[in-house]
Design a protein that fits this description.
By secondary structure, the protein is an alpha/beta fold. It has helices at 10-14, 33-36, 39-44, 46-62, 67-76, 91-94, 153-161, 181-187, 212-224; strands at 4-8, 81-85, 101-102, 105-112, 118-120, 139-143, 165-169, 191-196, 206-209. Strands 3-2-1-7-8-9 form a six-stranded parallel β-sheet, sandwiched between helices. A three-stranded antiparallel β-sheet has the order 5-4-6. The radius of gyration is 18 Å and the shape is globular. Its cofactor is Zn(2+).
């Protein structure tokens, strides 16, 4: 059995209309990331942070999964596949993917900053909403902000240490710890491949450049034979 680890990033969902950090006129350009994507920003102005993520949640719910999501969903049903995403959208799940590892959390989930409880987020979150478990009014989106530790790192690193094939799809590969995944896979002896609009410059054995909706289905067909 071939053990495969896939890391997907914003480029996977860009063709579904969900912008990346680098989009010139995207949602991210209207905000300072220190204000909306850090614990300190949330402490200073929770209303601004909730407004930002409410807008992103609405965008996500209006979006549709694309052919790249569907191809990865098909691959996720094969044995030995670990599907990791940096994306906080649910488009892989909507495409039918199994057991997606969301290392940066999910927009459609809420988190209590006091007790750690998690639940399905409402369409719009507001400051001061009580936690359903402890009633503390410090509920926040269940997403990983800058300066916080990504989720499920033990599981991800264990899969990388045992993989035969590692693929990075639609991610710049510049932010750690995800930027180090290719090296961990290479240390395990895995073949490494990057599928991206443009090459990131990472230490991959193979690089394929182009849109995800073209590259990913063709690559999945190759992998599944």
């Amino acid at each position: 059995m071939t053990r495969i680890v896939i890391l997907s990033g914003a480029g996977l969902s860009a063709e579904s209309g969900l912008g990346t950090f680098r989009d010139v006129d995207g949602l991210w350009t209207r905000y300072d990331l220190n204000d909306v994507a850090t614990p300190g920003g949330f402490a200073r102005n929770p209303a601004l942070v909730h407004d930002f993520y409410n807008a992103r949640r609405a965008n996500m719910r209006a979006a549709r999964h694309n052919m790249a999501h569907s191809a990865l969903a098909r691959l996720s049903r094969a044995p030995g596949v670990t599907l990791v995403t940096q994306n906080i959208d649910d488009l892989l799940e909507r495409a039918g993917a199994r057991d997606v590892v969301h290392m940066h959390g999910r927009l459609d989930r809420a988190l209590c900053a006091a007790c750690g409880a998690r639940w399905d987020a409402p369409e719009a979150m507001v400051p001061g909403a009580p936690c359903p478990e402890c009633a503390d009014p410090v509920t926040r989106p269940d997403v990983v902000w800058f300066g916080e530790m990504p989720y499920h790192m033990d599981r991800i690193e264990d899969a990388l240490a045992r993989c035969d094939l590692f693929a990075s799809i639609g991610t710049s590969g510049t932010v750690y710890p995800a930027a180090g995944f290719v090296e961990l896979a290479r240390m395990a002896g895995a073949h490494t491949v990057e599928l991206n609009l443009e090459a990131s410059g990472g230490a991959f054995d193979e690089v394929r450049e182009g849109p995800a909706t073209a590259l990913v289905p063709a690559w999945v067909d190759e992998v599944l034979g």
